[in-house]
Amino acid sequence: MGWLTTSLNRSIGKKFVMALTGSLLMLFLIIHLIGNLTLYGGREAFNGYVETLEVVKPVVRVIEVILALIFIYHIFNGVRLWWENKKAKPDKYAINANKEITTFSSRTTIVTGSIIFIFLVLHLSTFWYQFNISGHPETGSFEFYDIVTYWFNQPVYSIVYIIAVLLLGFHLNHGFQSAFQTFGWNKKRYFPTIKLIGTIYALIISLGFASIPIYFLLTGGK
Amino acid sequence: MSGEHLNITLKIWRQNSPNDNGQFEEFKVSISPDASILEMLDELNNNLEREGKRPVAFESDCREGICGTCGIVINGHPHGPLPKTATCQLHMRNFKDGDVIYLEPFRAAAFPIIRDLIVDRSAFDKIQQAGGYISFNTGGAPDANTIPIGKDVAAEALDAAECIGCGACVAACKNSSAMLFVGAKVSQYALLPQGQPERYKRVQTMVAAMDEAGFGSCTNTYACEAECPKGISIMNIARMNRDFIKSKIVEQEVDI
């Protein structure tokens, strides 16, 4: 195992960890979004979807633990890279020309990532906790659709949710192309296409998730 | 001629020794637009010496843009704001009368400042010594062109070999990562038949030397490619990543 630890702690190893965990999380986001879109089908469609997941609960639990480990490794490694990279560049220039030549998404991963992490804690302490453990915050019932309407009818919660998923979009816009570069799956002729697909992916995920609280705010749910 | 001269305010980083706290010092110069930025510093230094003051320390050698010795961060851009131009090839005609120009050394923990605009780039030498070469048996020199190499492959290898090792990539990178430099050095051999025997050993030893020298990790912002005076492509970093991952998974692990 020594070779693996050493390799993953090399600079390229750490990039590889970011790319691999990030890619798996990107895959998870697609599945998560598809599931959430059943909310547009109304109460029965959404409750039906969640109850289907209840049937395969042991599998879901295993996946949740794996996901949590992936998240933790991604966050731990990201913070470590940020800290080490800060130490490698202790002094700044009088004029910061970096803004002219790099993208907002690429410069701000630690900021967007940190905000997403705070949101994740909030998200798990509301939706995940109430779906799995406590039930509806007022009635205690496990009527999943009501839990969703309870939160999304609160403008503050919805706005925080929308801001978080929009920032997630910037994070993903960097992460998608970055993963390809880190794995070395990159050639000049298709790099623009990879970047474009990454931006489309980021838009679909962030606008897809953001559309749901907007829909609930406007209609109040069916 | 003096009527055409540009009046420039220079803010130059002055630092006596590696452990000193540096600060910017302001100079007013009147300079011909035909002078390069280094010639302007030469003229400034002549005047400073005449006045008995310490001249501004900076490095240069060929002044033809091919040796990689010069390197000043000019208004936040390593080698100045002109793309694919080394500091020595940057002329004052690219600036306007009345401009304020900030001149700073490359900033990175792995490139300690020696004095003023001069930094210690010996970390690059250590990376090169760790694997930036090919080994072959001594004897008569082999005939040229005995190993056929396609034109496109040769061109790609030469594009990577264009790296002059100046360190602008490190200076531009917010993480002071040296991956564009190491990527180029790894690629120039990885693309050619002569580089194959040590291909996977090389990428491991050079990356290890890079990490030990205190350079940061690449976060794929690509500032390096934009600032490189030779236009080295970040595809060289992708190739290095590919070879490194491959070396760890399917090739022989190297004891470093």
* Backbone shape of chain B: elongated
CA(first)-CA(last) distance of chain B: 61 Å
**DSSP helix count of chain B?**
8
Characterize the biggest β-sheet of chain A: none
Low-confidence stretches of chain B: none
How would you sum up the major sheet of chain B?
Answer: 5 strands, mixed
How do the strands line up in the largest sheet of chain B?
Answer: 2-1-5-3-4
H/E element order of chain B: EEHEEEEEHHHHHHH
Describe the structure.
The complex is a heterodimer of chains A (222) and B (256). Chain A has helices spanning 2-8, 11-36, 43-55, 57-88, 98-101, 104-107, 109-134, 144-152, 155-183, 191-219. In chain A, helix 2 (11-36) crosses helix 4, helix 2 runs parallel beside helix 10 and helix 7 (109-134) packs across helix 8. Chain A has 222 residues and is mainly α. Chain A is 81% helix and 0% strand. Chain A contains ten helices and no strands. Chain B starts with 5 loop residues before the first strand and ends in a 7-residue tail after the last helix. The mean pLDDT of chain B is 95. The longest helix of chain B is centred in the last third of the chain and has 15 residues, at 235-249. With 256 residues, chain B is of the alpha+beta class. Chain B has helices spanning 37-50, 122-129, 151-161, 168-172, 179-190, 199-212, 223-227, 235-249; strands at 6-14, 23-31, 73-74, 77-78, 100-104, 113-115, 118-119. Chain B has eight helices and seven strands, in the order E-E-H-E-E-E-E-E-H-H-H-H-H-H-H. The chains are: A mainly alpha (222), B alpha+beta (256). Chains A and B meet through helix 2, helix 4 and helix 9 of A and helix 6, helix 7 and helix 8 of B.
